[in-house]
Each structure stands twice: as C-alpha cells, then as structure tokens.
Amino acid sequence: MVNSLSDVEYNYKTICENIEKAALSVNKNFSDIIFLAATKTVDVETINYSIDLGLRYIGENKVQELLSKYDRYNLDKCSLQFIGHLQTNKVRQIVSKVDLIQSVDSVKLAKEISKQSKLYNTVTDVLIEVNIGKEENKSGVMPENLYELLDEIKDIDNIKVKGLMAIPPICENKQKICKFFDNMNNIFIDIDSKNIDNISMDILSMGMSDDYQEAIKCGANMVRVGSALFGARNYNK
Ligand SMILES: *Cc1c(COP(=O)(O)O)cnc(C)c1O
Prior knowledge:
Blueprint: H1 5-25, E1 34-38, H2 44-53, E2 57-60, H3 63-69, E3 79-82, H4 91-94, E4 100-104, H5 107-119, E5 124-130, H6 146-153, E6 159-166, H7 174-193, E7 199-205, H8 212-217, E8 222-225, H9 227-230
Parallel strand pairs: 1-2, 1-8, 2-3, 3-4, 4-5, 5-6, 6-7
Helix pairs in contact: 1-2
C-alpha cells in the first residue's frame, strides 16, 4: 500500500532526524548531507507535497517516467536528477532537464552526454556509478576500471564529474554492507587526493531506505531514499 500524505510527512521528518543523528555521529551536520528522494512509481502530487515539506532533491530512474511527470513537478526549489541506468539513445531526452546524472559508467555514455550538452550549450554534471560489489549484469564501472574511465572522461567537454555513486549488493547484515560503503569511501578519498583536472569529488551518493544511516557513517554525503519515505512501491498502477 502506498502511504497517505500524512504518513509521508511523518516519514519525512523521521528520515531527516535519522540523517541528522548519523551525520552528528561522524562530526557532520544535517546540512552536509543531501537527502534525495527516489521517486520511481510515486505520483507527482505526493512528490510535490514532499517538496512543500522541504525536500530539495528528487531522482528518477526511467526516462519515460521522468518525461511523463516532468511538466508537473514543482521544481522551483527542487533539483531533479537521474539515478537509473541510462541508455545512450535516451540521453537526448533528459539533458537540460536534469541537474545531475548519477549513473555514468562508460566513455560512450559520457560522450553522448557531452554531445547533447553541447547542443544545449550547457555543461552536465555527472557522477560515476561504481559496481562496487563486482556483480555481473549490474550497471556501474568495475572498480579496477574506474581510474581509466576517469582518465578518458576528464578530457571530454560539456560534462563535469562531481563524484561517485554506488548500489552495493543486497547484504544479509549491516556489517557486510558497511564494507562496501567503506570501500567506496576509500576510492572517493583516493581520487580526490589525486586532484585530476575536471574531476571533483564533491558527492558520494550511497545508501538507500534500509541503510542510509550506515552509509552516512561510512562517508556518504548523499543518500537516495525511496520506500522509507513513500511506502512500498506499486509497479502495476
Ligand atoms: C529505487 C532506488 C533507490 C531507493 O530505494 P529504496 O530502497 O526504496 O530506498 C535508490 N537508488 C536507486 C538508484 C534506486 O533505483
């Protein structure tokens, strides 16, 4: 069942409190952490209600769904981002509409984003998605290929790498998932220390409904929360 708006309000406040607690435990503040709501399958009314509550970042997974909602989002105060797997032939449809594409994992995709951004006379910010669990059939660049990818992307115009994103494997306990978060944080710090031109490590996007507090404790400064805010997703609406 999808939550009622009052459930969403309650959840929103609870998540903000949890984010703040986790942030304080690692000497950060609530304002250091970006709370992005993953809005797949969520209707625009509920999304806009959440924006009224204070939500400032939303992320969609599917190009088609994003386009179908695009005219109705209230984006005056809210950033719209793309967090799902992105096919090269769909880049054209979202460049200029989204503030950040979190799921770049190939030179081919980066080049297409560059090409389309040029047409709009804009620079598109991106994160590199890392397949930190080295799972087959999952998107994201393998950790061992990450530096080579960054080396190629750094010279591409109209695209700017702002950090890293990861979706770790499903883990049976929190300790296991923290290992993946720690690995990501170490990579993030290592790349940052190399001061590569055109590559900045501002955003480490990891942690979802079940583990965003752990992710923050391991260094995430952006969490992507869906069901904990909006309730279980209904894909057959
Ligand atoms: C759906 C989704 C989330 C949020 O998942 P929940 O477990 O519902 O919080 C986060 N990131 C991505 C990329 C997603 O597709």
